[in-house]
Amino acid sequence: MPYIDGIACTGVVANLPGRERKLKVAVMGELDAVVCPEHPHADPQTGAAHSCGHFAQIASMIGAAYGLKASGVMENLAGDVAFMAVPAEEAVELEWRNEQILQGRISYIGGKQEFVKLGALDDVDMMVMQ
Question: Are strands 23-31 and 79-87 parallel, antiparallel or unpaired?
């Protein structure tokens, strides 16, 4: 499945085409980690851990992608499905995010706002969050 990465720094979008292009449904999962150095799976360098539940959103989004692709059902659907891994909204890593804003890499702290600004949602007719 083709994808575009680096959207809003860490976002990824993969499009799965249907039989026709009548509409596009986005399945969105949030990417995030919280700084929690005492977490048993925390990164030893940053102290960040995927302990906020977003890992479950991403896992279910990937499961939906596998299911739709492997089943062959897309050949019978009149629209496309976009799988979007979007930087989350929590105000974490503010120093890093503010530095990205200063460097002109992003304009907003939240990923969805950045996706709107970049036009990543312009052709989406409806969205489901995992």
Answer: parallel
pLDDT tens-digit readout, 27-39: 999 887 778 899 9
- What six digits make up the tokens of 69? 């692709």
CA-atom Rg of the chain in angstroms: 16
Mean of pLDDT values over 30-56 = 83
Q: Which residue has the tokens 């991403």?
A: 58
Q: Which residues contact 86 (CB under 8 A, 6 or more apart)?
A: 8, 11, 28, 29, 30, 31, 111, 112, 115
Entry pTM: 0.86
First-to-last CA distance in the chain? 20
* Rounded Cα gap, residues 11 and 118, in angstroms: 11
Q: Which residues contact 96 (CB under 8 A, 6 or more apart)?
A: none
